Amino acid sequence: MPRYSRYRLKSDQTLELNLTPLLDVVLQLITFFMMLVHFGTKLEGATKTARLPIAAAGTPKSDLGLDRLVVVIDARGGIVSGDQSLSDRASEAWWNERAEKRRRGAELIGAASRDLPTRVIVRADRDAPYGEVRRRLAEARRAGFAKFTLVVLRSRK
Fold first, then answer.
1. 144 neighbors 133 (Cβ within 8 angstroms)
2. What does the pLDDT look like over 38-91, one tens digit per residue?
3. Residue 65 DSSP SS3
4. Mapping DSSP to helix (H, G, I), strand (E, B) and coil, where does residue 4 land?
5. Which end of the chain is more exposed for a tag (fewer CB within 10 A), N or C?
């Protein structure tokens, strides 16, 4: 009758997991989704009405406040509101209406100032005449808006 030992002999072999196939699959999945997903396609205020100009120094700003108003200016220099292009008196009335709404909101929180804290994000078409864009910004200034950010596309140079 064979004699069984109470203790087993310890072997020098250790169990090692091979993670290479798992990592290969994970990296392939990441690559697959990065190729399919289009990051940044739905930008705030994005529309096909305005083709943005391209600037070499265009960098994204991270100091955008919570209170902001996105304005789209079409190729003729009019403000795009819904499916209409507003210019001259209509755009001035549009600015005044937006400013009045924001002033009422500012009164509710106790802020009293002529200049509104709203940051106006301007998405002007690259073919818009500079004078018309300047005229729209002057209308905004008269309505009480003081902070502006012009959105451009960054060149790939």
1. no
2. 665 555 556 666 676 666 555 555 554 467 888 889 888 889 888 888 888 889
3. coil
4. coil
5. N
For the chain, give the number of residues: 157
Q: 122, 148 in Cβ contact below 8 A?
A: yes
Q: Which pLDDT belongs to residue 57?
A: 56
Its sign, for the CA torsion 127, 132, 137, 143, is negative
Amino acid at the residue 134: R
Strands of the chain, DSSP E: 54-55, 68-73, 79-81, 84-86, 116-124, 145-150, 153-154
Two tokens, residue 16:
């090692």
pTM, to two decimals: 0.57
Q: How far apart are CA 71 and CA 127, in angstroms?
A: 16
**Burial class of 13 by CB neighbour count within 10 A (0 to 12, 13 to 18, 19+):** exposed
